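Next up, sample data.

:::
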Amino acid sequence: MTENEIGKIVVDCAVHLHMELGPGLLESVYEVLFAHMLREHGLNVERQVPIPIEFKGIRFDEGFRADIIVENKVILELKSVENINKVHKKQVLTYLKLTGHKLGYVLNFGQELMKDGISRVLNGDVE
């Protein structure tokens, strides 16, 4: 499955979950339910994945934790805030660069409409 095929499922599930529950819940609630929905679509989903970072010979085994990684290809950062800031998109781009993944999303379940809370982040070309 390509990154773009995974991305379509991710966006469809995010919109559906938001329509069902609405905004305002904790990020952790959306994360658990969203991961479950993605698994129901037959996708391999990992939550709170520690990602190591190496810098000048120093290794940090948990440089950051990705909220969700789908099919070991797409990184998802979930938020439940009034608005996404530029820093959230930059954060996902950094995650993509460190892991070598090419596609990520910031999904803000705090928006009134989910379509306004979806930001696609690219690190190079995706299939």
Q: What stands out?
A: The helical segments are 3-21, 27-40, 86-99. The radius of gyration is 14 Å. The chain has one domain: 3-122. The beta strands are 45-55, 58-70, 74-79, 103-108, 118-122.
